[in-house]
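Researcher: Here's my situation. A collaborator sent me these components and asked whether they could plausibly form a single complex. I don't have experimental data yet, so a predicted model of the whole assembly would be a useful starting point for our discussion.
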Amino acid sequence: MDKAAIIGLGMTKIEANKVRDTFADMAWEAVNKALSDAGMTIDDIDNVITTSNDFWDGRTISCMAVGDASGAKHKNVSCCEGDGTFGAFYGLTRVLSGSYGTTLVTAHSKGSESVSSLITNASFDPIYDRGLGMDMISSAAMQANAYMHRTKTTSEQMALVSVKNHGNALRNPNAQLPMKITVNDVLQSEMIADPLHKLDCSPVSDGCCAIIIANESRATKYAQKPVWIKGVSFCSDSFFLGDRDLSRVPALTAAAKKVYGMAGITRPEKEINLAEVYDAFSYQELMWLEALGIAVDGKAGKELEAGKYNIEGTFPVNPSGGLLSGHPVIAAGLIRMAEAVKQIRGDAGDYQVDGVKLALAQGVNGLCGQSHCVWVLGKDK
Amino acid sequence: MGKRRVAIVGTGQTFHKSHRPDVNGQELINEAVQRALLDAGMKIQDIDAIVIGNMDHFEGINYVDCWSVDGSGGVMKPIIKLTTGGTTGCTLGIGGYHIVASGLFDKVLVIGWEKNSESDTTGAITTAFDPVWDRLVFAGAISGLAAEAQSYMAKYGATDNDGARVSVRDRKHACNNPHAQLRKEVTIEEVLASPMLADPIHLLDVCPRTDGACAVIMACEGLAEKITPIPDWIWGTSNRHTYTYLNDAKFGELDSMAEASRELFSKAGIKEPRNEINVIELYQPYSFAGIIWIEDMGIIPRGKGAEYIWSGATDMGGELPINPSGGVIACNPIGATGLIRCAEVALQIMGKAEARQVPDVKMGVSTGFGGCFWTDMILHGKDKPAF
Amino acid sequence: MNNIFDNVEPMVHESRISVPYHWWAGETASRFFISLRDEQKILGTKCAQCGKTFVPPRKTCPTCFTLNEEWKEISPQGTLVTYTVVRRHLASLPKKPPIIYGLIHLEGSDTSLLHIISEAKPEEVKIGMKLQAKFASERKGTIFDIEYFRPVK
């Protein structure tokens, strides 16, 4: 893979309801922050990829809302529908293809503007499944049960993910839900769908993130030290929940394997320093870590209890607070990438982890983690 | 334009129809994919990644890339969705190009599809427009197009008679295309006698609603030549999505087409498109666009479009055939439509266009259009592009 | 510049999108639902190449990419693979909670069917338990022709 880097990032604060901001306002804020961070003007941007979802935005051709605000009016522009990590992948290919030197990638959504249960229910097959009335939460609950059954992971271990991530968010000024809570607080919170309590679930938030990707020669021309893209890949599992073994994540393992190969990594849990993963639900952080080969299969809960994934542990996971602390769908994966970039640069302020040279970021599309996109970013070329 | 050459090595389409009750969406997709694989002599296992798109609100399914994996071949493969409204099909072709050109994947399957029969098209399209400023006054895609036609007619003296000549051309061309939905000729009189939808656009001036899917396989240089004897080389891509609010559009000229074509042709060193391009598959959702947009593309000077059409230059056998497939007026499965334009030019370059083959095609252009006056374009060539 | 908005109340414009749908089930799904409605039989399709049997039935095998021409009758009995008990009234629910959803691996199929479990208290539901389809008395050719799955006594 030719060399390319992330040279700018910007994001809005993640909030429950940005009532003062339209999609365009959020994009304007994130894009300007990214340009300012990179020391670039909009004229330095060669092309734009926006990421959005028509259902969440309540408009078909949802990309139309943010094109102008992303500086795309007289540029080549396209739109990916899915998590921001996928949009960033496409943005990267536009640079690696040789067509453009820099790509601005944005991703946004405003969960406050719709009923999330109905939006995610619309992901179900209309002929066989949708009428049953499931949504993102009830299906995730089924997956959590399957995972707990296979691995004997406990509710307490899942709750600990929530405790850790909300706690990490106390140090992140962009996070929506910084909270000092205990395992007991999680277990006492409202049971939404067994085994998921309210505090096992991420909120549905408003937010927008923008990053700037550059090819090797442009990467060193601006204000920031480049953060190099060492590997990226993605993979989807089957669609029908009944076609899958919900307790496992073969698509994530397959994507990660490709990425590690691209990055020359043979022992991810030793060679990577930190991960920002897609913890839409507490149990998912544990499942994803096992599928990524960072945790021993079935043992992520125990490893968490031993402190491995704490911010001061040997392999910090979601030092930003993760999705549990703020979840603007679509933007969420791009924010994981931005957070990984901050850590590598040494820009993560109060939640900075020392000595980060390689970081992993992951995004998800679809129910119960059907499709995953994995990135490894590095300090050195 | 790029460092790694990319070519189309196979295409497949369904036989597009107004309604396909015999299949659901992913089964429809599968038909096109199987045909593309057959055309390229490949198996689904040979595909490295999939790019897919449609307009969600036409099918009412969220995360459609995830939903359709059974039909697209996406199980345990990388799959990504791109969508940009009406231009989606062309956007997908552009996406496939960059993904292969990047070197990250060698053989990519690109799929565009729509099952328009399943939804209220106007209801869905209306949601494209800003809910606070535009949506309440917007009357579906056609009102914007009628405004465009009226503006042009007022400036250059064209009439609905000129638009009808374009319809006649495309409907005649469609008779050569077994995949097209509408395969019956129409006369100028019939077009002008058909019900007026939004002055000056008659029913027979506009595209139908169609269920259909199209799949295109792209491969990198080195592999493409092994897969097929005459690959269709992608020389360049460009687009402009210039419009956000109704008031921003410049009615009577398609400035997104003008900007995108200038960029595409100058990057490729094309100075006289009228002489250097041999075939155009224009995403032309209504007849008048066939007059206005070829001026914006720089084929013919401003105001001369109607004369050029009447001369027969754009008919089969003319100097620059447009829409040998019959185009969008004969068939419009929206998410597929732009990709069908791309596939049809590929068939022309590869010499596989059968009854609709234009002789000696060396360069071709396929475009995508969106009801918000957006334009996407791809330049295709029989020879490999220089770098 | 930001100050000019300070005393401006943010307005919220409420709306509903109205895009009516009907979805073609296609011949494969139609056959499945007609069988539920008219014969109270659950059908699946089998791939001749890999031998996998799919419920809901698939027209083509997702991995082999060949047409599944063999139809099989699937047992209405199966094992519970996983489940959840929804307690909060999520907007997508068809009726008031608690509702128990589960994936049931029916005998004869290689995939599991998503459905609702009833005639069981939440505490009684266990992964691995045996369940049986209960067909609705009035059937219209939808997934609710199976009213729900209940424990095998």
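Model: Some features of this prediction you could bring to your collaborator: The radius of gyration of chain C is 21 Å. Chain C has a mean pLDDT of 94.
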